[in-house]
Write a structure and sequence with these properties.
81% helix
Length: 77
């Protein structure tokens, strides 16, 4: 009796690995965003500015998050 890995098992393993990478990437991105918010832009309260309706701050914050996501993604591959 040989133990061969079926296509379904391979797909399940790859799906689990991709999900793991996505979760790790999400946590690293959020931590990096918090660090950037706390140490680089100390005098700006991004959350308060977004609540006031400042669209430029929302775009800037999302751009930082995208950039961190790209860096984390390229580092994981």
């Amino acid at each position: 009796m040989s133990m061969e890995i079926t296509s379904v098992e391979q797909n399940a393993v790859f799906m689990f690995l991709n999900l793991s990478y996505a979760v790790i990437s999400l946590f690293v991105s959020v931590i990096a965003l918090v660090i950037i918010d706390k140490f680089v832009f100390r005098r700006i309260d991004f959350i308060e500015e977004i609540r006031k309706g400042n669209l430029a701050v929302a775009i800037f914050q999302s751009t930082i998050l995208l950039f961190v996501g790209f860096v984390v993604s390229s580092a994981m591959h």
